């Protein structure tokens, strides 16, 4: 039964961690040091022993807690953001909500609740949900949460590997890659998605830039260490900007490719993309971190057993849109949620909750989301929007007064009245 499986999993987890280490050591001995990106990719998504593929440690018992796990308010406000963009676009007849790396599905669940509450507003709109998820384990959890487990699996070669209908009657499809998601007017959401994509690390030395690699430690048996590449590497030639002033730089090429795809889609089909993650605007240097049981964990120890992340460099994402779309932010989570009206929403929920335990929980999660020392300042919101959303088509006649553009919710003081 499930308990036996859990016990077996616990017994094997030590062995599984070390078998990934053995696999990596074998690789290192066979073909030399790995880039940090290759190491991170193996540790997180190796089909047999990767951290996400094997377990995906979200929630109180896992290795990290995400905002939607804390508070329904977070997801509701994001749902409102999409609806306000839908209204600003003139209420298109249909939209797809596409979430990248949906975790347990809590965020989509909260957004669907908002869509249901605003059913009269959305009644003429054809809505569908598209989830991009590589972890079979997490997609099961998402299906359970969003559909009550009523899903059909597709044949292996099908780009849609699972389909279902949400509890609120909206079709949901699962994909392994964003490229498989159908084109069309879409709202994209990436919450704590970009931070888990593999990064390359570079260090400035007297001899110029060198890539940081992962190798076996000659002093300590079966242990890994960081080394500098003796000479130039392909990644170094491709990803270091000539104007770079930092001493140490992390670059995530996969994030760049993904942003290009999003920008291309938004330019072609319209919509909006909202990215929420911890990150910086091209100022930070070494942010590669590991987490295990909610505590910091050495990134090179027990690969596959810990969550590995790096702060998102929003300046790099902005650069990679290549001007195809407008970008807004990054803006601190605290400011974004304040602009979205979190304070009013909290008051309403506090008034509607009968017991002190619920009120305590609401205040606690509000503090986690908004406190500058907790998630308030380290989390950022960043948006991609088609250019026409922010700039007026050139009017030939200057005498005509320009209609004011609808401000973008969350990124400006004005929120939905």
TrEMBL record:
It catalyses: L-arginyl-[protein] + 2 S-adenosyl-L-methionine = N(omega),N(omega)'-dimethyl-L-arginyl-[protein] + 2 S-adenosyl-L-homocysteine + 2 H(+). Its EC number is 2.1.1.320. InterPro entries: NDUFAF7, NDUFAF7_sf, SAM-dependent_MTases_sf. It is found in: Mitochondrion. GO terms for molecular function: protein-arginine omega-N symmetric methyltransferase activity. The keyword Manganese does not apply. One of its GO terms (cellular component) is mitochondrion. Keywords: Methyltransferase, Mitochondrion, Transferase, Transit peptide. It comes from the Eukaryota. It is an enzyme of class 2 (transferase). Belongs to the NDUFAF7 family. This is Protein arginine methyltransferase NDUFAF7. It comes from Crypturellus undulatus. The lineage of its organism: Eukaryota, Metazoa, Chordata, Craniata, Vertebrata.
């Amino acid at each position: 039964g499930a308990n036996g499986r859990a016990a077996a999993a616990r017994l094997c987890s030590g062995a599984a961690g070390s078998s990934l280490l053995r696999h990596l050591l074998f690789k290192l001995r066979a073909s030399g040091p790995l880039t940090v990106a290759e190491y991170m990719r193996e540790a997180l998504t190796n089909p047999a022993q990767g951290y996400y593929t094997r377990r995906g440690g979200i929630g109180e018992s896992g290795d990290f807690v995400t905002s939607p796990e804390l508070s329904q308010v977070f997801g509701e406000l994001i749902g409102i953001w999409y609806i306000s963009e839908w209204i600003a676009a003139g209420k298109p007849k249909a939209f797809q909500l596409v979430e990248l790396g949906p975790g347990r599905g809590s965020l989509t669940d909260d957004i669907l609740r908002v869509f249901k509450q605003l059913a009269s507003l959305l009644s003429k709109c054809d809505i569908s949900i598209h989830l991009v998820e590589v972890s079979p384990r997490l997609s099961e959890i998402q299906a359970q949460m969003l559909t009550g487990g009523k899903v059909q699996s597709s044949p292996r070669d099908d780009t849609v590997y699972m389909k279902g209908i949400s509890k609120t009657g909206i079709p949901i499809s699962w994909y392994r890659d964003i490229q498989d998601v159908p084109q069309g007017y879409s709202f994209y959401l990436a919450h704590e998605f970009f931070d888990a994509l593999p990064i390359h690390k570079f260090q400035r030395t007297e001899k110029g830039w060198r890539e940081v690699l992962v190798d076996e430690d000659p002093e300590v048996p079966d242990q890994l260490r960081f080394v500098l590449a003796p000479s130039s590497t392909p990644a170094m030639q491709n990803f270091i900007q000539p104007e770079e002033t930092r001493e140490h730089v992390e670059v995530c090429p996969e994030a760049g490719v993904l942003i290009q795809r999003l920008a291309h889609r938004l330019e072609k089909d319209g919509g909006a993309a909202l990215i929420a993650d911890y990150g910086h605007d091209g100022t930070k240097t070494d942010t590669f971190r590991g987490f295990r049981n909610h505590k910091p964990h050495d990134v090179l120890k027990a690969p596959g057993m810990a969550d590995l992340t790096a702060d998102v460099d929003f300046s790099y994402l902005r650069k990679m849109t290549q001007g195809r779309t407008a970008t807004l932010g990054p803006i601190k989570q605290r400011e974004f949620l304040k602009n979205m009206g979190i304070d009013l929403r909290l008051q309403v929920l506090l008034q509607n909750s009968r017991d002190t335990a619920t009120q305590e929980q609401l205040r606690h999660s509000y503090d986690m989301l908004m406190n500058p020392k907790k998630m308030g300042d380290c989390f950022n919101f960043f948006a991609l929007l088609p250019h026409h959303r922010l700039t007026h088509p050139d009017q030939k006649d200057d005498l005509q007064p320009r209609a004011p553009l609808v401000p973008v919710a969350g990124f400006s003081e004005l929120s939905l009245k």
